[in-house]
TrEMBL record:
Belongs to the SusD family. Residues 316-424 form the RagB/SusD domain. This is SusD family protein. Keywords: Cell outer membrane, Membrane, Signal.
Length: 473
């Protein structure tokens, strides 16, 4: 019995000593628990800034360069890009962009949204939802079926399921709608914003409506452009980015663009960095289809031609005043795109007068922004609906110059872009073979780690249409 009591006393003393030491330790390290150089958390606005920066890398980076090459608005001239020019591409080429899309853009947006709600910053929450909708709509357009409902939730799964492309579109549009609704009720400006929106919630609402119109037009293609969806397109686009006026910075007053500085590996234009500093000679013009199309349109297009291309038609313009100067802005949504969406939707509904009016407004935008001297069309210039749609297609092709969306647009209209010289019609045709690319490959990094990949990819999958464009997967 004495032995038991003795052991109890020893245990009690040890316990008290441990508690005492623990208390002393807590007092000693109080205030020093967090390493200021390795913060474990940050405010919502910082996560949003991280998402914005990653979205710039994604949207302005390789996907837009590849889109330009496949749209024949630029030419892949050397090494890997020479292969891309003739559709020689593999799953390994997309691992970085997939990582950007999910780990850096979507994940940061989700964290920013959660923290914005906790901090009572509902305006930031609304903007983050709009950017999420635009971003994930773009991801779905490029890849088809993609993770979304289970994505960016590492606490639940590291191998998210793949959602049907149509479901992702609808969810992306729902995110945009939620963002618009929240901003309407919480209109205070953001404290920080990396884009041309400058923190203005009114401008972000316009971004949301234009993004929604863009995605709805993708969906409309699947069911051969039903009037119900076209009317939704018009309703959204009319509230979107439509100003034809030029801002002092050179883009439209409502345009959604990435603004740039001159710091390498910092804030400079990513195309300038790629063309001039990183991979000189890889991406050129070399009298590509877009160069020839602008040339065929004559002196009226000289302003736009000189903005994008060098005088000899062989390179993209990277000097001061050019589209790819060191600090040149990069467009995500121009007013001309939204105006041409309105023109196309009205043309398909048989509203010819309205369609021609919006087409002319897009041309006015070009005159104001690029110094073109394009004249107005009249209804009589288009004997048939097909003639009007062709004119709209041609304008949209040029309006989306070097934008990721040009790849989505061309697939939606089955690459039906053309120009004429005299009586001869020149159509966009594949660089090799008889088929155009229809999607991006799932990256090898995803193929190797996620068993939910919908199918085993083969080289010919590059030419398989996605669901919104009439495909089955």
């Amino acid at each position: 019995m004495k032995k038991v009591i003795s052991l109890f006393i020893i245990a009690l003393i040890a316990s008290l000593a441990f508690v005492g030491c623990q208390k002393i330790t807590e007092n000693y390290i109080k205030g020093y628990e967090d390493n200021p150089l390795l913060p474990s958390t940050a405010p919502a606005i910082k996560f949003f800034a991280g998402a914005q920066g990653a979205f710039i890398e994604f949207y302005e980076g390789f996907p837009s360069q590849l889109a330009a090459v496949w749209a024949q608005q630029a030419t892949g001239a050397d090494r890997q890009f020479a292969g891309f020019d003739v559709y020689n591409i593999t799953a390994n080429d997309f691992s970085n962009d997939w990582f950007l899309a999910y780990t850096r853009v979507l994940t940061n947006l989700r964290i920013a949204q959660q923290k914005a709600q906790e901090e009572g910053l509902l305006n930031l929450y609304g903007v983050a939802k709009i950017l999420e909708g635009l971003h994930m709509g773009t991801v779905a357009a490029l890849w088809g079926d993609v993770p979304y409902s289970e994505a960016a939730q590492p606490e639940k799964t590291l191998t998210p399921k793949y959602d049907n492309q149509i479901d992702v579109y609808n969810a992306a549009i729902a995110a945009i709608d939620e963002g618009i609704q929240v901003l309407t009720q919480n209109p205070a400006s953001l404290a920080q914003d990396l884009y041309s929106t400058g923190g203005s919630t009114a401008k972000w609402i316009k971004v949301g409506y234009s993004a929604k119109a863009r995605l709805l037009m993708h969906l409309a293609r699947k069911d051969n452009y039903p009037s119900a969806i076209l009317n939704q397109v018009i309703q959204a686009a009319q509230q979107g980015i439509t100003s034809t006026q030029r801002a002092s910075a050179g883009y439209g007053t409502d345009d959604f663009v990435f603004t740039h500085g001159t710091t390498q590996a910092g804030n400079m234009n990513l195309w300038y960095s790629f063309i001039v500093l990183d991979r000189a000679g890889y991406l050129r013009a070399l009298k590509c289809f877009a160069v020839k199309m602008l040339g065929a349109r004559g002196a009226a297009e000289s302003g736009r031609f000189n903005y994008y291309f060098t005088a000899d038609s062989n390179d993209l313009r990277t000097t001061t005043g050019g589209a790819y100067a060191v600090s040149a802005y990069f467009p995500v949504i121009r007013a001309s795109e939204t105006l041409l969406i309105l023109a196309e939707a009205n043309a398909r509904l048989g509203n010819t007068t309205e369609a021609v009016n919006y087409l002319n407004q897009a041309r006015t935008y070009n005159n104001n922004i690029f110094g073109t001297t394009l004249s107005n069309y009249t209804v009589g210039d288009f004997p048939t609906q097909a003639d009007l749609l062709q004119a709209i297609y041609n304008e949209m092709y040029l309006a989306l110059m070097h934008n990721v969306e040009v790849f989505n647009f061309l697939r939606r209209i089955d690459y039906q872009v053309q120009y004429t010289v005299g009586n001869q019609v020149f159509r966009l045709t594949p660089k090799t073979g008889t088929r155009f690319p229809q999607r991006l490959f799932y990256p090898q990094s995803e193929v190797s780690t996620n068993p939910n990949i919908p199918w085993k990819q083969v080289a010919s999958d590059l030419y398989e249409k996605t669901r919104v464009n009439g495909g089955t997967r």
